[in-house]
Amino acid sequence: MEFVEYPDREMLALSLAGKIASQLSQHLRGNETASLCVPGGTTPAPVFDTLSGTEQLDWSRVTVFLNDERWVDGEHPRSNSRLLRRHLLTGNAAAAAYVDLYTGAARPEDAAAALAEAVAPHLPITVLLLGVGNDMHTASLFPGTAETGLALAPDAPLVMAVNSVADEPRITLTAPALQRAINTHLMITGPDKRAALERAQTLDARDAPIRAFLGDITVHWAE
To answer: pTM for this one?
Structure first.
């Protein structure tokens, strides 16, 4: 694990966006396509704003998809796709292909198998960006749940429904999809997230799911 500390969040966003664009471009020099898997939430929005305007990348050869999604319509205020369309899939990056994890099915478990088939051609993920919560969850892998135990297993399906959360049901990529990424980054800001990351390193992944991804990863942090 490499830990990079930045003087402020603006510098973090600019640097991380440049790194992601560079890694995608480098991959495309030897491959027809590349994939970018990103988290929802507001923390990475400044990275997306910068990344969407990059001109060094042939976005038409990049496929974008989320780490996870709430099972809500794409215009719902809590939809991760809604945020992505406003901050990443715009400008130059509007040319990218997008695999939407919300299909409109009645339940996420009804769509999991089809979503796994949609994601599989884009694996291994070229560039994976993760986030982490104060509870040490990442994607929709939450501490101490039976679903997380299943999702962290080496033989887990690539995509799983998550119904153990208090709010909306969710759909998430699992460890077999996320752990094999070629380049992995974790973006965190503030002292609470840094403390959560440090604590996670002392725990089992079932109790601190981000722990499962702290091998070959670059952590980007600013106060």
So the answer is: 0.98
